[in-house]
Design brief:
The protein has 480 residues and is an alpha/beta fold. It has helices spanning 10-13, 31-35, 70-79, 120-129, 170-179, 221-225, 234-239, 252-261, 288-292, 318-325, 360-368, 384-398, 417-430, 464-478; strands spanning 50-58, 63-67, 83-93, 101-108, 113-117, 133-142, 150-158, 163-167, 184-194, 212-216, 242-245, 266-272, 299-306, 339-343, 372-375, 404-409, 439-443, 455-456, 459-460. The strands form 5 sheets. Strands 10-11-12-13-14-15-16-17 form an 8-stranded parallel β-barrel. Strand 18 (455-456) and strand 19 (459-460) form a beta hairpin.
């Protein structure tokens, strides 16, 4: 990637926006003719060489940042709260190939903004005449000629700030020309980029667009200890996708007994974020069952730290937790593959005093985490204000390519949980928001709601395991 992986620290400099300092990028009225040089070969890029170019919005400077480096993207998540992720903007090549030319990346030390060009002429002029531009290397490779599977990358000059904006979206280009022509000058096609991660879409085998189903330890003591219930949740026991390791109110012995009744060994552990000033707990604090029972060989997917108070992330960062809980020297059955964060819907409400995005430390924890869970009582999130907050959490988790986990509880209901659960689940499905890696956790606080049977005939029962039964069936039906 042209040395970009070695330059991750530069993204921090993007925080500096020197208003009115001068030294912005020079507009070139014939940018498109300088950029698009004659290339006779038809572009050919192997699927393995295609990379997504990720786009961020700099909320402080009002400009965009683009990177094809996964390492740099992850560094932004962990260190630059002012860079708001917008998802994959387009696809490019990670190395030179037939018909592909290097796209050069410069960093403007006076404005703190990056500039990209495919033109050798423009590159040479910048290096000769504009010393404030620091050359960072090749960002990625693109085409100077149109071809099947390629689309134009449109280039605009933002006059007020002396920087450029790039988009591969024709709709976005037209919107800018219609509504923002007073400040954005269209310079033409910068070059051509790819529209897909492979040459012949669909690019991956589509997974089921329905979430996995996790069975929590908490609230299921009776299912652990009463063998008489076993036949009443046999389908769930054999087909659940994971174990949710909230062990409130359940002993290690009961946890071990419950896990043995399940076929899955996939585990996500949940625990509160340590109180301010407290250290992270050692990894051993979350491996009791594995260490006590040698026959239980768990596959720890993640450990999720929950708080509804963004201030609890002040003074701590996810990198420290990741170093502890993904320790590569620990036994594979005890170390976690990633650290997740957990929240409430109102943490995604701009009008709430606990708004996540009002706290830079919380933003970095949320964005750099490998997954997100949000607790939303089952009868609150189908629609309305809570539904809007819930959907924002889903979208802002997915834009980073992370799994979203719906932590659903019965909210003191005594009946009707299944119907309410189905309403929310189906509403999210109808909007196309479920992804194959997502999950639902069906939490029966205190075991207060009926647990079994899982079904009455072939229909799901209005019980905790009935919800799991129905949700597993939905995923099976959606599997290609």
């Amino acid at each position: 990637m042209g040395g970009l992986a070695r330059r991750c620290a530069w993204v921090v400099v993007l925080a500096v926006w020197l208003a009115g300092c001068g030294g912005g990028e020079q507009q070139t009225g014939d940018a498109q003719t300088k950029s698009l040089q004659t290339v006779t070969a038809t572009p050919k890029v192997a699927d393995a060489d295609r990379v997504g170019v990720f786009r961020f919005y700099n909320t402080g400077a009002g400009v965009h940042f683009y990177t094809a480096s996964v390492e740099e993207r992850e560094n932004v998540y962990a260190t630059a709260a002012f860079l708001e992720p917008e998802g994959t903007a387009f696809y490019a090549a990670s190395r030179s190939s037939t018909g592909m030319s290097p796209v050069y990346r410069f960093f403007n030390t006076q404005t703190g903004v990056h500039f990209y060009t495919i033109s050798d002429v423009e590159k040479a002029r910048i290096e000769t005449d504009l010393p404030q531009f620091h050359y960072e290397g090749v960002a990625y490779y693109a085409s100077t000629t149109p071809a099947a599977g390629f689309t134009p990358l449109y280039r605009f000059y933002l006059k007020g700030k002396g920087v450029h904006f790039y988009t591969a979206s024709l709709e976005e280009k037209q919107s800018v020309e219609t509504h923002l022509s007073a400040i954005y000058t269209y310079e033409g096609i910068g070059y051509y980029v790819m529209t897909a991660a492979c040459g012949t879409p669909p690019c991956v085998v589509a997974g089921p667009n329905r979430p996995r189903v996790f069975i929590p330890l908490t609230g299921n003591n009776d299912l652990a200890t009463n063998a008489g219930y076993d036949a009443q949740w046999s389908y769930v026991r054999q087909n659940a996708h994971g174990i949710w390791g909230n062990n409130a109110g359940i002993t290690d012995a009961e946890s071990g007994a419950l896990i043995r009744k399940l076929t899955t060994r996939n585990l996500i552990t949940e625990f509160p974020v340590p109180s301010p000033g407290s250290a992270w707990w050692p990894l051993e604090a979350f491996t009791n069952v594995q260490r006590l029972y040698s026959d239980i060989l768990l596959q720890p997917e993640g450990i999720a730290f929950y708080t509804d108070n963004p201030g609890n992330w002040n003074g701590r960062n996810l990198a420290d937790a990741t170093a502890i809980y993904t320790d590569p020297t620990a036994p594979v059955t005890q170390r976690y593959r990633g650290v997740y964060t957990g929240w409430q819907p109102y943490n995604f409400d701009a009008g709430n005093s606990k708004y996540l995005y009002a706290n830079p430390s919380a933003i970095l924890a949320f964005r750099s985490s490998k997954g997100t869970f949000v607790e939303c009582p089952v009868n609150l999130c189908a629609g309305g204000p809570f539904g809007d907050m819930f959907r924002r959490a889903i979208r802002e988790t997915h834009v980073r390519g992370r799994p979203f986990i719906w932590f659903t509880s019965n909210n003191s209901m005594s009946s009707g949980w299944l119907t309410a659960f189905q309403e929310t689940y189906n509403a999210i499905a109808a909007e196309g928001l479920w992804k194959p890696e997502d999950a639902v956790v069906i939490v029966n606080y205190g075991g207060a709601y009926p647990k079994v049977p899982e079904s009455v005939g072939s229909a799901a029962a209005d019980t905790a395991m009935g919800l799991a039964y129905w949700a597993i069936k939905q995923r099976v039906a959606a599997t290609p």
